[in-house]
Amino acid sequence: MSKVLVIGAGGVGSVAVHKMAQNPDIFSHITLASRRIVSCEKVAESVRARTGVTIDVAQVDADNVAETVALIERVQPKLVVNLALPYQDLAIMDACLATKTDYLDTANYEPRDTAKFEYSWQWAYQDRFKEAGIMALLGSGFDPGVTSVFASYIKKHLLDRIDTLDILDCNGGDHGQHFATNFNPEINIREVTAPSRHWEGGKWVEGPALKHKQPFDFDQVGEKNMYLMYHEELESLAKFYPEIKRIRFWMTFGDAYLKHLEVLQNVGMTRIDPVIYNGQEIIPLQFLKAVLPEPSSLGSTTRGKTNIGDIATGEKDGRQKTVYVYNICDHEDAYAETGNQAVSYTTGVPAMIGAALMLTGAWKGEGVFNIEQFDPDPFMDMLNAHGLPWQVKELDAPLDF
Ligand code: NDP
To answer: Residues in domain Saccharopine dehydrogenase NADP binding (predicted)?
Structure first.
């Protein structure tokens, strides 16, 4: 029986709160706070209609540490679940430190003025969290999150040694819009326009953004082009699994999405430095976000499935083996259950699961932890029980690309 405070009432926050409300034995009291109270009220209404559970709502600017501290002191949660934007991570961690409250998030910190995401800023809180006797769980979404837990599961049960790991993220959904992103457009566009980077032979190998293309036949989705990209779980997996010689991340994109992105980049609309417009400073990418469809509005029209998983090659009982662990999630099923499409669903469910494991004490510790540092088994069981079932396949041969 525990009180939880969720910050961020976007698509991911909405799914997480719906799933928490479905588990009242663990989440006995839920408060949802966001920059705009109206975002929280919409979610609260849907939660009440779908589950019969009433949640509390609050307004907070999570960039403001004092405001968040005051909210935490008022609500007295056992855990703060940060589902706002990566920009707020450090401010919310500071508020958790000040109030000695556990912390969880799904995306690592990014400064607003540089498209650079890395764990160093959050790992720097290790000693302070330890001294305060509190725990931070970083990256409890799908990727990072489930894909990192899949790697731990592979290491624990399927391979004695992992030599190569490829994370394949396919969204086979179609939302019917010319151009839209499935989660926060600003964060999404910053991520996909960054240079590609993968881990090989103990160092990072960089390449141009979205240039290394590879077709792949995804179960229940079909063949799609996927592109080599940098993604934040590569950094923590390289740190916690130093035996892995090569770790890569691939994401699928359709030709129309890439064409729109290329044009937007060429005309300067993805810039994150300020420009003066009508005497006022604006950031082009933030303006672009304002004219694009809200990801949370895509749920009702999105059809198709996501298929995200890990392919690992290594050794088991002296034999070379390649295994594939993946989840398939249907956009329409996710929408029917929570009113949100599968990209929010596949992130919000693991956020709820990580929170449940912290609140029940199944995962505990003092300091700052990445998700792959914990026993994968209870998390994998909960994925099966809470809407994200996974499967394991043995492949005949390692990937040939
Ligand atoms: P949205 O943009 O839909 O929602 C973000 C929410 O945060 C909004 O409700 C917004 O407020 C709120 N917010 C923004 N700034 C503040 C602030 N200063 N104080 C309080 N609230 C604020 O994003 P998503 O729901 O799609 O994504 C949420 C998080 O999940 C992001 O960090 C994203 O990077 C991460 N993510 C992780 C994935 C993974 O697999 N690990 C995959 C997808 C997303 P309001 O509406 O009230 O104005």
So the answer is: 4-137
